[in-house]
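Entry:
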Amino acid sequence: MRAGARVLDLGCRPGSWLQYAAGRIGEAGALVGLDRQPLDRALPMPRPPTHTRIVVADVLTVQAQDLLGSLAGFDVVLSDLAPDTTGIRSLDQARSEALFERALDLALALTVPGGHFVGKLFQGPDMKRLLAKARAGFEKVGLEKPAGSRKQSIELYVVARGRRRS
């Protein structure tokens, strides 16, 4: 993220990615967070961007225009969305894939050409299809496993760079 960037954070609660993004984009940037629950407290951002907005809504039903507001598009879309887990692996994977696909669809609709997307995904049967969809919309797509993640964890992050022109 660069200074002045416009960033959308899907699943922004409790707010750590918002804090990180705010520090990177500075006062000239724009920051929009979405979560189905309001943030518990005011975020202690070092230099809050002039344009900071939190949208309380469900990612599965929110309208893209409600996220954009007056912005023309986003340079970066972050998604830390995760399902309420049940302990039933196949169900949790399916729910994660649905959330990831919705986040990817929003990124494809709202990211400016050259923009980037990072989204959490539990490895499951639709992973290849979802990666192919990401590759169709972005120049480079890779997978990252967080260093702090357990070895047996199925959680990955898809990192997509360089939004293709539509």
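The CA atoms of residues 16 and 35 lie 13 Å apart.
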